[in-house]
Amino acid sequence: MTDAPTTRRTVRAARGTELTAKSWQTEAPLRMLMNNLDPEVAERPDDLIVYGGTGKAARNWEAFDAIVRTLEGLESDETLLVQSGKPVGVFRTHEWAPRVLIANSNLVGDWATWPEFRRLEQLGLTMYGQMTAGSWIYIGTQGILQGTYETFGAIARARFGGSLAGTLTLTGGCGGMGGAQPLAVTMNEGVVLIVDVDETRLARRVEHGYLDELAVDLDDAVARVLAAKGERRPLSVGVVGNAATVFSELLARGVAIDIVTDQTSAHDPLSYLPEGVTVDEWHELAASDAEDFTRRARASMAKQVEAMVGFQDAGAEVFDYGNSIRREAELGGYQRAFAFPGFVPAYIRPLFAEGKGPFRWAALSGDPADIAATDRAILELFPDDEHLRRWITKAGEKVHFEGLPARICWLGYKERHLAGLRFNEMVASGELSAPVVIGRDHLDSGSVASPYRETEAMADGSDAIADWPLLNALLNTASGATWVSIHHGGGVGIGRSIHAGQVIVADGTPLAAEKIERVLVNDPGTGVMRHVDAGYERAVEVAHERGLRIPMQEG
Amino acid sequence: MTDAPTTRRTVRAARGTELTAKSWQTEAPLRMLMNNLDPEVAERPDDLIVYGGTGKAARNWEAFDAIVRTLEGLESDETLLVQSGKPVGVFRTHEWAPRVLIANSNLVGDWATWPEFRRLEQLGLTMYGQMTAGSWIYIGTQGILQGTYETFGAIARARFGGSLAGTLTLTGGCGGMGGAQPLAVTMNEGVVLIVDVDETRLARRVEHGYLDELAVDLDDAVARVLAAKGERRPLSVGVVGNAATVFSELLARGVAIDIVTDQTSAHDPLSYLPEGVTVDEWHELAASDAEDFTRRARASMAKQVEAMVGFQDAGAEVFDYGNSIRREAELGGYQRAFAFPGFVPAYIRPLFAEGKGPFRWAALSGDPADIAATDRAILELFPDDEHLRRWITKAGEKVHFEGLPARICWLGYKERHLAGLRFNEMVASGELSAPVVIGRDHLDSGSVASPYRETEAMADGSDAIADWPLLNALLNTASGATWVSIHHGGGVGIGRSIHAGQVIVADGTPLAAEKIERVLVNDPGTGVMRHVDAGYERAVEVAHERGLRIPMQEG
Ligand SMILES: NC(=O)c1ccc[n+]([C@@H]2O[C@H](COP(=O)([O-])OP(=O)(O)OC[C@H]3O[C@@H](n4cnc5c(N)ncnc54)[C@H](O)[C@@H]3O)[C@@H](O)[C@H]2O)c1
Ligand SMILES: NC(=O)c1ccc[n+]([C@@H]2O[C@H](COP(=O)([O-])OP(=O)(O)OC[C@H]3O[C@@H](n4cnc5c(N)ncnc54)[C@H](O)[C@@H]3O)[C@@H](O)[C@H]2O)c1
């Protein structure tokens, strides 16, 4: 389903305080939808693709136009339903109800495979929503920067005495999400070599300050990173190449690499370039014979993962960074693919047990000063959190905004609503020049079932139980979120995950404050609840200390 | 996970107007949960099994107790979360929010298989919720009676001049749902022979007036039904036997059968008894070697379906009655299993296109007079609907209440809320002695994705798209329903369906009236919307005539 070129256009969210829609409750999703497609934000805006392989914001341009038109006229007691990027109905609800309800890419289990998904996509019946693409709360590469920074920070603490100084990381994939890796490593004082087949992707990260430099070839790259490593000087270097080839080559050369991961779009075999195929041939070849392309992509992934396991055998810290590359390599015939862990059980689960996850907000004004003001507010609200202070400070210095100015920081249960309520006050008082939206990634503490990533190796074996994200979505809908979404297949691919999102608008009104209090307590609360149920002691403590009611532990 | 016998007990919903919980909004789910487990209602109450193979109302007795305890104390701005029959959290929401949110049996796609489901069930992590078992709005066999009556009525109109008089129907399975078949056929003036392996199931239907008589053996049964058919005298006869054996035998004998279907619990191969296994050996054998039992059950289903196709080849009207037996027979090695259609594309889809589906309500008073009063109200509200009048009149005469008195009738978009609002007025005025709950089956116009049943052979090929039921659940949550549920695997089995339910309490208050208006317009509205999107002309007309907003058709 490619649109006629005439319907393509450059999209950018409105700035300032003049409304196109009838209220900020509908102006907000309108601006955030458009912001997702801003060329500064989206990876392939002409195709409505935001990030993560083929993660889209709307089914097609006709659907985009209809969403815009409907949001512009939507009343404060009406709700728009969006089915895989297409607006399908408008219903009368009430003031506490979400203004938009979204379900993207969901398939009945027996049909939840890439080939079936693609067949239905070809028929025009669905689209791939990834996580925050189809739910209109992607904020550019910063969105993942904090998570990546946290992850590398955890590795630094666990294995390298608190800093990555003097270590070398090897990774692949410098796209929308993967592009955060070089900056996250250098923010942790390390050196990193990142491989991508597509030079434009690497160049874009250099332009945006996420990547320091581009090497001429692999020899040049290795020389530069080893020099920096020797001097304990933070540096990120990009090199054009296929990760399958380059990873194997570096292993064979015996280059002293300390940490290895990958963030190519491995979750979708058509978005991973097999060895022997050029970037120019890519899309036509994938489209013309998806099955053969899949086979070849998996064979290359098998080779790449084999090299990763080789690095692990040689003593490196190796982890899967949430793109399902282990499972794809296994399907490609490599037996030891699951020899290294996913990053969630390895580093993130303890945060999830406290309801901590990628809390984020964006300034609808478009004014960076609004984000600077919220940054200060966060530091005032949590004066004792040293880790948070370091992040907010560094982010303020290093993060280049893409699209509407935005910020991310990980906050937990009974923390997020404090920030939300403060922001709402700041909107009311005029400290902020316009309302802000407050949301999060679907990758969060209580909003995902994804056995190769967020729920890998749960203590009670409940990895594949998908009731939890659905309860999360229902509860956010019942708590006053402004838009709520349920997606399938984000991150790790079709058949492998179910997850939910929520966004709430702080427009400065007392009603918004009430809703913010409910949503930003309840949403991370489902994360604590889910980890209590799975038997995590820290979650039980948090529930107890912070007053979360768990019926099976009462009475 | 069997409970210690000591925790088992006989459960029955309270009657009358004295509240155990703090309001009718929470008393209602409490009574309906208990009503689902009333021995008059549930098929195996000791195991918390309500109907449909292993469809349960709560995970175990401990979870049941915790749900009851929590509902008793729940405030009007709190919401209880239930994960596969276990209460997992209580959150502060608001007055318009549902009091209970339920997600049952949901699994991530790649793990959505019976063996994986059972493994997780063994670990105590999930339960099978079927459709209305885990969502607390099962009302006994009447629940399916109307649908079955409608289905046989449609066949009568399509093939037999408007009545089944002088026709003979053969079917299998006389359980919670299947037990409606004999009465539905005789209400359409036909003759029916029903086969069940378990004599107690047949005896129960005789006791409750759903089945006329039990034959001594197959010869006796055939003699009785042929005599009745010859005399064009409505009659239902039950015979003990395995459907695989009996169907083949009757085909071989050349008995003049006009209509063939089946409602054994084929959706779950462990709930279908293979040939050569006795009822007494059943559960132990299924538990001890699930894989081998599955193989044998599928082989028997293949044999039964082969006989069904044989009847079709001989000119009979043959259809799958929503238990996935065709797919199981195919897995059992029989190639032509899909030679006959499912009942939805064959008879029900035109109703779904108008948002028509199994609307139902129950009198929380326990007083049959309340249902009689609502029956009268329905006839007054829709004086011109001859079909509805016939059903309500017959139901009033023939339906034996199981548990709380209840009624079902199929109503469409912009009809259901009229009934709901009238009932609410009747509660307010004292015409009814206590509030009523208003709900429906998950098998409804906009609430299911199930490619072997409700969404089989959709006009646009969207059978497996599961966004629709999720949007339905989110919208009901956003519209003021009292409890909302999302289930996986009901009807047709794990991996094959996703569906949603809603129940709303008419407690006579103005707030309830507002909620009823939203929910009972929006809920069937999603059905019309779904069928508009799939291209059904009648749905487009209904949307146009009755004022449903479809964004892609505007602007
Ligand atoms: N860990 C997390 O928190 C997280 C979050 C979101 C997404 N993800 C996953 O990370 C992956 C990357 O996401 P993204 O948004 O960056 O995707 P993207 O599509 O924007 O970028 C993928 C990049 O990989 C490159 N690539 C493809 N094949 C390659 C190969 N063989 N060798 C080298 N480079 C190759 C592409 O050129 C592209 O630049 C996805 O699988 C996504 O689902 C992880
Ligand atoms: N068409 C619909 O609208 C609809 C609605 C709900 C459920 N269903 C499906 O219908 C089926 C029956 O539901 P139910 O609630 O009656 O289930 P149930 O478990 O209460 O009853 C099933 C009956 O089948 C009998 N049976 C099992 N194997 C048999 C065999 N080989 N031969 C003869 N009898 C056999 C059992 O003894 C039992 O009485 C299920 O698959 C259910 O999912 C259909």
From TrEMBL, chains A, B:
Main location group: cytoplasm
Binding site for NAD(+): 52-53, 130, 176-178, 196, 201, 242-243, 263-267, 272-273, 321, 491
One Gene Ontology cellular component: cytoplasm
Catalytic-site annotation from UniProt: 409
InterPro entries, per database record: Urocanase, Urocanase-like, Urocanase_C, Urocanase_central_sf, Urocanase_CS, Urocanase_N, Urocanase_Rossmann-like, Urocanase_sf
MF-aspect GO terms: urocanate hydratase activity
Key word Lyase present: yes
Transport recorded as keyword: no
Official protein name in the record: Urocanate hydratase
Gene name per UniProt: hutU
Comment on bound cofactor: Binds 1 NAD(+) per subunit.
GO terms classed as biological process: L-histidine catabolic process to glutamate and formamide; L-histidine catabolic process to glutamate and formate
Domain of life: Bacteria
Residues of the Urocanase N-terminal domain: 11-137
Broad EC category: lyase
Organism: Agromyces albus
